[in-house]
Write a structure and sequence with these properties.
CATH superfamily of one domain: TolB, C-terminal domain
CATH class of one domain: Mainly Beta
Structural class: mainly beta
Order of helices and strands: HEEEEEEEEEEE
CATH architecture of one domain: 6 Propeller
Strand order of the largest sheet: 1-2-3-4
Largest sheet: 4 strands, antiparallel
Number of helices: 1
Radius of gyration: 28 Å
Shape: globular
Number of strands: 11
């Protein structure tokens, strides 16, 4: 009975190829590029804090959780970073390369707890609803995601009326919202330009 040899034999070339000077230079260039890429990936993979992180403040996860813009460049969130209990709306670059920017007007303690917001599909603007000007009267606002002048886009209404809900159009140019503008519990649908009438 013959035993089988499981060893695989590989034939060696009769003569090892001579190293090519151009190939050596190419290998050095490739090695340098890989080291540079590794450094970049290491920095990109590092954990960084992008919110303000003041001693008393909290990033809120109630009502509307933090959201990323469609292009991934910005995070938008609610935080009482300036006034304890006043949950303003903030935007910050996800790479941590700049300080957070407050998008809403400063909100007093107790305000902003029910603030809701959406980011436009093109990532250019943030629309939010809150009782920013009159306590208990929820109105609709629009602001550039990187910060800038904010605009109230909901129509004038009595102090006991509210914007109940809203959606941004897929084309990012209009906002649809419903409100009891004329009479309590009588809800109508409205459409306004996203950057204001």
């Amino acid at each position: 009975m013959h035993s089988r040899d499981s060893t695989v034999h590989v034939a060696r070339p009769a003569q090892a190829p001579r190293p090519c000077p151009g190939r050596r230079a190419g290998r050095r260039t490739l090695a340098s590029a890989l080291l540079a890429l590794a450094g970049t990936l290491s920095a990109a993979g590092a954990s960084i804090q992008v919110s303000a992180g003041l001693p008393f403040s909290d990033v809120s996860f109630t009502t509307t959780r933090p959201r990323l813009s469609p292009d991934g460049l910005f995070a938008v969130y609610r935080q009482d970073a300036v006034t304890d209990g006043g949950f303003d709306l903030w935007s910050v670059r996800t790479d941590g390369g700049a300080a957070p920017v407050r998008l809403s007007n400063p909100l007093a303690s107790g305000q902003g707890q029910f603030l809701t917001f959406e980011i436009s599909p093109d990532g250019a603007r943030v629309v939010y609803a809150v009782d920013q000007e009159t306590a208990g009267k929820t109105e609709l606002y629009s602001v550039p995601i990187a910060g800038g002048a904010l605009t109230r886009i909901s129509m004038n209404m009595a102090s006991d009326r509210d914007v109940i809900g809203f959606r941004i159009s897929p084309t990012s140019d209009r906002v649809f919202y419903y409100s009891d503008r004329y009479a309590w519990t009588q809800y109508d649908l409205y459409s306004v330009p996203i950057d204001g009438p």
